[in-house]
Amino acid sequence: QLQLVESGGGLVQPGGSLRLSCAASGFTLDYYAIGWFRQAPGKEREGVSCISSSGGSTNYADSVKGRFTISRDNAKNTVYLQMNSLKFEDTAVYYCKLRQYWGQGTQVTVSS
After folding, report:
1. Which of 18, 60, 70, 94 is the most exposed place for a label (fewest CB within 10 A)?
2. What b-and-e string marks burial along 59-92, b requiring 16 or more CB atoms within 10 Å of the CB?
3. What is the pLDDT of residues 60-76, one digit of tens each?
């Protein structure tokens, strides 16, 4: 059964860093682009970043450019989102998505 599991969320102060992981099971990530999305309280889910199957192409929302980095390790069947210089407005549940499949999400809270 195909499953995506996010981890790495938590509570961090403004300016801090977190690295999220999205681990896949039940299939091989190698051939698929993966996206990270987030949903803040009271807001719609929005795209944060995506990466091509080879990792050679990446895209970022303007709000996270220069602060977040997406990467993948196909040998580990895992995609990462390195988040630096975190801001209050980055607080959200973060999800990874492959085609129509979503993970369960991981909470990121930026608070002083």
Report:
1. 60
2. ebeeebeeebbbebebeebbbbbebeebeeebbb
3. 999 999 999 999 999 99
